[in-house]
Specification:
The protein has about 230 residues and is mainly beta. The chain is built from 5 helices and 13 strands. The strands form 2 sheets. Strands 2, 4, 5, 6, 7, 10, 11 and 12 form an 8-stranded mixed β-sheet that branches. Strands 3-1-8-9-13 form a 5-stranded antiparallel β-sheet, with no helix packed on it. Strand 8 and strand 9 form a beta hairpin.
């Protein structure tokens, strides 16, 4: 998974979808071009309040870190090693979260030069829940998104994808688990077939750009892109 995604639903909508208390205090707005260290919504469990919709910064900073300077390098944690990684093992065991998203971006290199961006998003417009882990650093909640080997047509876009959690897996992901590694299975090919692989314009490549035009479908020259059998 690369370092961009979109999350545009209001806190009220997300609180309803994830049945969570809204603790964002109006600090979030729609973001069609989320980049590392940006503030975005995450759903976690608070011992006193239950499910809570919070503001998290993308890029986990371990509680013991002396600075947050490495956050941008810790936006993703590999599912294959998260349980044993020095940086991620404790958050994975104790502090798992859901990361609401409309979809995520990847870039495919064109045979004739340059890269074509794609937006992976549910065909039915529903919200995605990316598997995440979180930590507190000073006054900030920080998090990483788990990634796993890409499945099916998604593998023609990139060899990795975020670990996506269908709604029937949200409760287990958030709950304490004797064997959290059992929660790391990728969703079924049938569920993944509900995702659209949508070609979008190059403007998303600039982190300063934002707005719904970034996720609008654009025509693509079949002869200039790899993986055309899956990407059109």
């Amino acid at each position: 998974m690369c370092g961009r995604y979109a999350t545009t639903r209001s806190a009220g909508d997300l609180s309803a979808v994830f049945e969570s208390y809204d603790d964002t205090d109006g600090r979030l707005g729609p973001d069609h071009n989320v980049a590392p260290t940006d503030p975005v919504p995450v759903v976690r469990v608070d011992p006193e309040q239950g499910r809570v919709l919070s503001v998290g910064r993308w890029g986990l900073v371990p509680h013991s870190a002396k600075s947050a300077g490495g956050a941008a390098r810790m936006i993703n944690a590999r599912a294959e090693t998260v349980a044993t990684s020095r940086a991620y093992a404790v958050p994975f065991a104790r502090r798992r979260c859901l990361v609401p998203a409309d979809g995520w971006y990847e870039w495919v290199r064109r045979a004739g030069g340059g890269k074509q961006p794609y937006f992976m998003t549910p065909r039915d417009g529903s919200v995605l829940a990316l598997a995440g882990i979180w930590s507190r650093w000073e006054t900030s909640l920080t998090f990483s998104v788990l990634t796993t080997a890409a499945v099916g047509e998604l593998a023609e876009v990139h060899d990795r994808m975020p670990l996506l959690l269908p709604a029937d897996r949200w409760a287990d992901w958030l709950a304490p688990a004797d064997d959290p590694a059992a929660l790391l299975a990728a969703p079924s090919p049938q569920w993944l077939a509900g995702l659209e692989i949508r070609p979008v314009g190059p403007a998303v490549g600039n982190v300063r750009n934002n707005g719904p035009d970034l996720v609008a479908r654009v025509p693509v020259d079949r002869e200039r892109s790899h993986g055309e059998s899956a990407l059109f």
